[in-house]
Please model this.
Amino acid sequence: QAAINIPLIADVLAVRVAGLIDETDAGGIKSLQNGRSPWQRTKAFRASGRLDPTDNLTATVMYQYLKSTSQSFDQVIGEGSPGGVFRNSGYALPAVLPAGYNGPNLNASDRLGVTEGGFSSLDEGHIVTAQVDWSILNQNISYVGSYATQKTDNTRPGDRGNLIVGYDYKVPSYTDSTYWTHELRVRSDERIAGMFDYVVGAFYSSEKGTNISDRGPSFGRGAFGDPRGAPNAFAPAVERYSSRTIIEGARDNTETSFFGNITAYLGQRTELSAGGRYIILKKDNSSQFVHAPGG
Model:
């Protein structure tokens, strides 16, 4: 990581830039069924500036970017499946599985998992903030605003215990969000008539986004072999005999509010304060369930 301050104009304009790059082994857990190594990478950048063109006007702005990606595996500890005879109502014969069929005995010191697939993640975001303060005629006018976007894209293995040997299915999820905020307020820099302070303002925020979540597959008759026999836990599932549920969501939420407060100073020991806030909330959220074929 590194940072640098740059005074462009003495006592008027300055810029600060900082950055970060971080790489780790994401805990170091590997999988017996996957030859890839775990990793995590984070990159971040931030730039900020301050402008003081006059004694009564100040403006600051900041931008930040962060991206984090990773691939990792779940650690498991124990002797694995005890084995046995397992019946399924969709099959004529039971499955007979030996003890430990889904993996060997593992201790905590082994730092191993048993999934064919791993966890993968992407988290990426942008943030911009700004603030302006202006003092004039014994009043202070202030604006604070922000803009942000956030995107996540994650995938996890569906068969986390390796119950279906040699096969795994991915369970993805995705979100994408955008945020806006604005606030404008006016307050007194000096007491009015020697005894009153006040602040009034307005605030607005907006949030929009989408999300997609996969609940994973449901396996029907025939997904693990001919229903006239026994289910086969050592072969990939037949996807045409499975289905999955996907949830798609969207949101569009806003807030508009107006606020004010006044304080009266009555002597050295008494203050009276009164204030209020009026809020208008609008929320539009929807979800759609999609039942799709495939495992």
